Amino acid sequence: MCAWKSLCLVTSIAMAGCSGSVVENDHAQQEAGSAGAGPSDAAVDVLPSDSPLPTDGPLPSDAPSPTDSPLPTDAPVPPDSSAPDAHCLEPEADFDGDGYTILQGDCDDCNPHINPGAYDYLGDGLDNDCNGTIDDGPHLCDQGLAMKSSESVDGARAIGLCRSTSLGAEGKDKTWGVIRTRYVKADGTEGMNPLSHGLLANFGPETPPEGVTMLALSTGTARAPNHPDYSSNDGANMGTTSNPPPGYPKPIASCPGVILGSCNDPAAFEIDLRVPTNAHSFSFKFNFYSSEFPVYVCSQYNDIFVTMMAPIPSGIPDGNICFGPNLDPISPNTTLLQVCKAQTAGGNQYDCPLGPAGLEGTGFEGKGATGWLQTTAPVEPGSIINLRFATWDSGDAILDSLVLIDDFQWSIELVPKVVTTPVL
Question: With a threshold of 0.85, does the pTM exceed it?
Answer without folding.
Answer: no
